[in-house]
Amino acid sequence: MSNHITLRDIAKESGVSLATVSRALRDDPRTAKATKKKVKDVADRLGYRPDPALQVLIERRWHGRRMNEGMNIAYVYNGKGINAESCKIEYRRFRETAQKLGYTLIAEDLSKYPNVEKVIKRMETKGVTGVVFTVMADAPYPIDTINERFASVSVNVSSWKPECPVVMHDEFQGVERAWHRLNQLGYQRIGTLLQDYPQSYSMDQRLGAVFCRQHYVQPTKNRIPFHLHPKEAQPNDKKIRTWIERHKPQVILGDDHEELGLLQSMGYKIPEDFAFATINMWNTDLVGEIAGYFRDNVNLFERALKLINMMVRSGNTGSDQGDLIEMVKGNWVDGASLPDLNDKENSS
């Protein structure tokens, strides 16, 4: 057997990633025992012998180079999913950020491949080192094998959570900070209008935060039960209108800034009838017009790149770190939809 057996040879023969081979041969406790045995058996059968001098050289190269130098990152999305258009817009923004930081971002549309094996082969051909998943409500086929082969991170999650680290906005704190700002501006009767999206990974955080604000901060006389509406609510939604007329909120805290358009299409004038703010302000063009908790996914992407760097350096794949969730704070922005009630009181 050849004396020049490499880790890549072992990975190919074992059907696992290079990172998994590296961890298995180091007896990394985070690698499954069965996987370690499989890799070591293949290494013994092929006659692999580690080269100590080469290991020292590799360590010196890691310490002497930029971690992102020449690193290709795949941006994985479902081109036929419900989030397809927003994913394409997000990719353009992420690509600009990646270029500034020295990475190459490569878009990979799952809908163009018949199975995950073809996706992995294509990414390996392109020299992909790390993978970033965007928000996907669904995937055309099981894709968690990607997390077993690459250092991967998910930027936000929807109803589908991949077996890899997740970097997401702090939904709970978003509601808390929004509520605090509304109180500062003099609003007492706060109505919360949320999309009824039970499959959403972060829905429980939003509902939990609203519950805490209502029961531990809000006086009983000013408590308004939150209202859940269908994702595709129509202007003739009688339940929303009944909820508004019954509870008469001073301000509505929406799940998304698009709810402002829904309320206006129902004939409500904002902020004349009631003010409006959102816990999910993501459109930079609307800053200053709509008040809300601004959450920029580019910040999440930058954090994802740092995590991928750390994983590549330590020889970890996405599945090795699948229990990691990192919460990122957003920033509150005031807007014309939310006038300061204190100014009105002072002027009167």
From TrEMBL:
UniProt KW keywords: DNA-binding, Transcription, Transcription regulation
Checking SMART domains in the record gives: HTH_LACI (SM00354)
Check the record and name the Pfam families matching this protein. Answer: LacI
Molecular function per GO: DNA binding
Source species, domain of life:
Bacteria
HTH lacI-type domain location: 5-59
Q: What is this protein called?
A: LacI family DNA-binding transcriptional regulator
Originating species: Coraliomargarita algicola
Kindly list the organism's lineage.
Answer: Bacteria, Pseudomonadati, Verrucomicrobiota, Opitutia, Puniceicoccales
